[in-house]
Write a structure and sequence with these properties.
327 residues; D-Maltodextrin-Binding Protein, domain 2; 2 domains
Length: 327
C-alpha cells in the first residue's frame, strides 16, 4: 500500500466518522475526558438547575467528563448569571452554561446589556412540555371556557407562572392573543418557581397557571389541579390531556433548554465541548433521564443551535412586543 493511498484512506475514515457522529468532529469524540464547570443561572431546584445536574450526571456516566461541578447564580431570568458567565468564561474551554427560551425573553424584558451574541452555542438539549392548569374547583372546565373568559375581559383572567418574559409568560400571551383577547392587558403574575405559583392557585387567588408538566404532575394526578391543555404539538405519552391546537387555538410552544460556552473560545475548544455533550446526550444514562423527567430529546448541534437561537429571538421579541413587555 503506497503512503499516498494510506493518507487518502485515513482522511476518508475520519470524514466518515465525523458524519456518523452527527457532525461532531471525530477528533472531539476521541479526546480525553474533560474537567468541566456548568453554571445554572437560577436557584437550586428549578428547571435550569435540574438540567445542569442531569447533564452533569450524563457527562460523568458516559465517560465524556471526569469531574463536573455545577454552580448556581440566580437572578433576573438568568441575565445575572449570563453577565457573570461572559466575564468569567471568556476563552475558557472548560465552562458551560445552561440556558433556554426564558433567558431569551429575560434579556429583552430586563434590557440586559449582555445578550446571547456574547456566548458560543454548543447544543440544544431538551424540550419541556408546558401545561395550562386551573384549580380543581374552578368553573373553567376546558380551554374553551378559559378562552371565552379571556375574550370577555382579558384583564380579569389572572395567570400565575415563572419569571416575566419567560416561557410561561410567552405561552399565556399567545393563548390570550389567539383567544381574541387584548394581549396588551394580559394579567400575569410571575413567581420564582412552580411551588409559589401552585400555592396561589390552590388558594384561589389566580385563575390559571402555567408551568412544565412535570412540576404540576403530582397535583394534577391528586385531583387538586385540572389540566386544560399541553403546549406541545402532540400529546404527552401516557397523559390524557389535549393539546392547545386540538382545542382550536393555533398555539404551540416548547420550553427548550440548551448549553453555551463562553466567548472567544478556539475551534478546538468548541469541538471538544461539542464532542463531550454529544457523547453525554447519546448515552443510555441520558435516555433514562429524559424518560424520568418527561423531557423530549431536542438535540441540535452547535451550528444548528446557533441558527435556532437567532430565529427564536425574533419570535420571542414579536410575542413580548404584542403583550407590551417590549417596546
Amino acid at each position: 500500500m503506497t503512503s499516498t493511498f494510506r493518507i487518502a484512506r485515513r482522511a476518508t475514515i475520519v470524514a466518515t466518522a465525523s458524519l456518523l457522529l452527527g457532525g461532531v468532529p471525530a477528533t472531539a469524540w476521541a479526546q480525553a475526558p474533560l474537567d468541566l464547570k456548568i453554571m445554572a443561572p437560577a436557584g437550586p431546584g428549578g428547571g435550569w438547575d435540574t438540567a445542569a445536574r442531569s447533564l452533569q450526571q450524563a457527562l460523568t456516566a458516559s465517560g465524556a467528563a471526569k469531574n463536573v461541578q455545577v454552580v448556581n447564580v440566580p437572578g433576573a431570568g438568568g441575565t445575572v448569571g449570563l453577565a457573570q458567565f461572559v466575564n468569567n468564561a471568556k476563552g475558557d474551554g472548560t465552562q458551560l452554561m445552561v440556558m433556554g427560551i426564558t433567558m431569551v425573553g429575560a434579556i429583552l424584558t430586563n434590557k440586559s446589556p449582555v445578550g446571547l451574541d456574547a456566548v458560543t452555542p454548543i447544543a440544544r438539549l431538551t424540550g419541556d412540555p408546558l401545561v395550562i392548569v386551573v384549580p380543581a374547583n374552578s368553573p373553567l372546565k376546558s380551554l374553551k371556557d378559559l378562552a371565552a373568559a379571556i375574550k370577555a375581559d382579558t384583564s380579569k383572567v389572572v395567570w400565575a407562572g415563572g419569571s416575566a418574559g419567560g416561557a410561561d409568560h410567552i405561552l399565556a400571551g399567545l393563548v390570550a392573543k389567539q383567544a381574541g383577547g387584548d394581549a396588551a392587558k394580559l394579567n400575569y403574575v410571575p413567581f420564582s418557581g412552580g411551588g409559589e405559583a401552585l400555592a396561589e392557585m390552590l388558594g384561589g387567588r389566580v385563575t390559571a397557571g402555567v408551568s412544565g408538566y412535570n412540576e404540576f404532575e403530582s397535583q394534577i394526578k391528586a385531583g387538586k389541579l385540572r389540566a386544560l391543555a399541553v403546549s406541545t404539538g402532540k400529546r404527552i405519552d401516557g397523559v390524557d390531556v389535549p393539546t392547545i391546537k386540538e382545542q382550536g387555538l393555533d398555539v404551540e410552544l416548547t420550553n427548550w433548554r440548551g448549553v453555551v460556552a463562553g466567548p472567544g473560545i478556539t475551534a478546538a475548544q468548541k469541538a471538544a465541548l461539542s464532542g463531550a455533550v454529544f457523547k453525554a446526550v447519546k448515552s443510555p444514562e441520558w435516555t433514562k433521564i429524559l424518560k424520568a423527567r418527561g423531557w423530549d430529546d431536542a438535540y441540535l448541534d452547535a451550528d444548528a443551535f446557533a441558527a435556532f437561537i437567532k430565529a427564536d429571538q425574533q419570535h420571542v421579541k414579536e410575542v413580548l412586543t404584542t403583550i407590551g413587555l417590549v417596546k
